[in-house]
From TrEMBL:
It comes from the Eukaryota. Pfam families: Snf7. Belongs to the SNF7 family. This is Snf7-domain-containing protein. PANTHER family: CHARGED MULTIVESICULAR BODY PROTEIN (PTHR22761), CHARGED MULTIVESICULAR BODY PROTEIN 6 (PTHR22761:SF5). Its main location: membrane. InterPro entries: Snf7_fam. One of its GO terms (cellular component) is multivesicular body. Residues 170-212 are annotated as: Disordered. It is found in: Endosome membrane.
Length: 212
């Protein structure tokens, strides 16, 4: 697994920066070694002076002074290396930015080329021609269809508009009255009593004898 993964390409600039950083690290290691020598020689000169060997102490301090001069030179070399590495890295960033700007300018030129006046006018002309062609088709169809066909077309159009209008409106829910919880009470029949004036005005019904 992982055999198909692409390996990042190492350019000449990458190798140059890597070499400079390796040299910088070597200089730093050399500085540490010199600093250790300076510390040791200082202790040696201090001990020689305490033992009464003044000449040896002076000689040791002279060697120590020479090592200090070398250390100062390595400081300058280290500063030059770090400056060079920073300059190269910043230059690579500038090159990358310039490359991006160049590609962006090419894209803008291509867009402007496609959106020039001639292409815009051509597009407008093609649009006008398409509209004119559609108008001619509409007129031809209108002259070909009968009155009944045109009425059917208008009816279908009205039906489609009605469906769209109905789909856009919300349906109002139907609210039913609540169901009564108690049973209905049967009402008593109302007996109409005859009025007094009706009784006085109506004569008694005569019984008709039935023939034997």
């Amino acid at each position: 697994m992982g055999g198909n993964q692409s390996v990042p390409k190492v350019t000449a600039q990458d190798r140059a920066i890597l070499d400079l950083k390796l040299q910088r690290d070597k200089v730093k290691q050399y500085q540490k070694k010199i600093q250790a020598v300076l510390d040791r020689e200082y202790e040696i000169a201090k001990r020689q002076l305490a033992e009464g060997h003044k000449d040896r102490a002076v000689s040791t301090l002279r060697k120590r002074k020479y090592q200090e001069s070398i250390l100062h030179k390595t400081d300058a070399q280290l500063e030059n290396l770090e400056t060079l590495v920073s300059t190269i890295e910043f230059s690579l960033i500038q090159v990358s930015v310039m490359h991006g700007l160049k590609q962006g300018n090419e894209v803008l030129k291509q867009i402007h080329k496609e959106l020039n006046i001639e292409n815009v006018e051509k597009l407008l002309e093609e649009t006008a021609e398409a509209r004119e062609y559609q108008r001619e088709i509409d007129e031809m169809l209108a002259n070909t269809l009968t009155v009944e066909d045109e009425e059917a077309v208008q009816a279908e159009l009205a039906a489609l508009q009605g469906e769209q209008l109905g789909a856009g409106q919300k349906k109002t829910p139907v609210v039913f009255p609540p169901v009564p919880k108690t049973e209905p009470v049967a009402s008593k029949p109302v007996v109409m009593e005859p009025r007094a004036e009706d009784q006085a005005a109506s004569p008694e019904r005569e019984r008709v004898p039935v023939a034997a």
